Amino acid sequence: MTPVLLHRPAPIPGESFEGYLLRVSDANGYGSRQWVTELAQLTGRSSIGFGDTKLLAGLLEVPQERLDALRYVAGPWSGTQRILRFNGRPVPRMAINLDKPRFCPVCLSQSPHMRMAWDLAPVTLCPEHDTLLRDSCDECGAALSWNRGKLCQCHHCGADLRQAKSLTFPAEARMVTLFLLHRAGLAAKPQDLAVPADFARLGLRDAIRVLMLLGSAVQGLPSYVGMRPCTWLNASAMAELIAGVARMLADWPGSLKSLFERPVPQSRHDLGVFARSATTGFLGPQFRFLREAVGSAAVECGFLEDFGMGLYSRRRRNKAAVLAPDDELTVMEACARLNLSPPALDSLVRWGLLEPRLSRNAGQRFGFSAKEVANLLARLGANMAPVPQTKGMITLSKALSLCDDRGIDRGRLFLALIGGRLAVCGRLAGEKGLSACLLERSEVLQWCRRQRPVPFMAASPWGLAEPISTSMASPLQYSACR
Fold this sequence. Notes:
Layout lengths: L16 H11 L6 H6 L14 H7 L3 H5 L5 E5 L2 E6 L2 E4 L12 H6 L14 E2 L4 E2 L40 H11 L13 H4 L3 H16 L9 H4 L2 H16 L3 H7 L6 H14 L7 H13 L3 H7 L8 H5 L4 E2 L1 H8 L3 H9 L6 E2 L7 E4 H12 L11 E3 H10 L4 H9 L5 E4 L9 E4 H10 L6 E3 L5 E3 L15
Antiparallel strand pairs: 1-2, 2-3, 4-5, 6-8, 7-8, 9-11, 10-11, 12-13
Helix pairs in contact: 6-10, 8-10, 11-13, 12-13, 12-14
């Protein structure tokens, strides 16, 4: 005979799977939902697809399909993000809040179960009751946990969560929240949606990515790539972030210019990273409105030092176009010829080894002289002899990583190579470009130990950062690609 639990509440449509396990545990008098997961032999994050729910379905006498419909089943990797299925819609893993459960006191009073919508990280308010979702106890201030015995009681002090005060939320966040719930299939389409038409056409996954990107810039958070704000922020902080995004979308795209013109010196570099992320990390026709709006605002407000490197780093060009001897090279064409990444190329620009110039064809993007790139390669490769064996040798890429580990700007290494203070011993067989150079590891390590911290960087006339002191460049035996 198959064992069953004494009390077997049926799952409610739109209920959180973690909340359902907690409700089953509470109904059977267990001290924690872990008793239920152990009986069902579920390990890890059962709500995101770890473990089979067949045994749990037997314990509760519930069809397994109904249980699996509540779970956020893991999908394939997409770049660096794990994709889950939230109510059948793809979302990034970090967009689902599984560590800090939230609740609406009024909703719990009306029906004591945890809603699936509360697990979506950007959803921090209850549009039905116009209250902010709570993620801590009103009495003791302890953060809530799924591992508690009672669904409606604080695990720390035993206070009734249904008696918590209802907090108001920024009015601007309501419309964006309704839009997200609609895209998740948990609410009807909001009337008179006050967001750009291009944004309104995005799916749930793309909309969350755009919200986190814009919200991070508005709040001044240090991460503009990825979904980290979803896990960093509590309910009230996330509500402020969504409200800031709502105000930005209401005045799109004029709000972007005001964002870049904020008089906060520390924000200049971060906003440059934000501009680069928006133009290189959001590919596809659905993000064209975002790339064009952020790109034009960044150029107009003088953020070329960060924006220019990433403006068209993903530009599609075939191999023949990259190798063609044009007079002017794009960023990625220059990277291909030098066999360097865009950050390494950025170091060459900052230290004056390559001078960017505006393209004749498009005044809002950088170009490089093909002759200067060829001269740079020639000066490094003129006296390099093949190395018969590579013992004790490292590549230029490894030398760059040593600079990063010691806080040394990469441009110093290039200056030392061109100035003759570091010897290039040879190339890898059959390889071309700067990153195919071989260096003596001990010599590079000794050079790294002699370096001082990176000097203060100022803005150059063309908008790129350059060192105030040029004493390091003075020992050069020739002008660097001028």
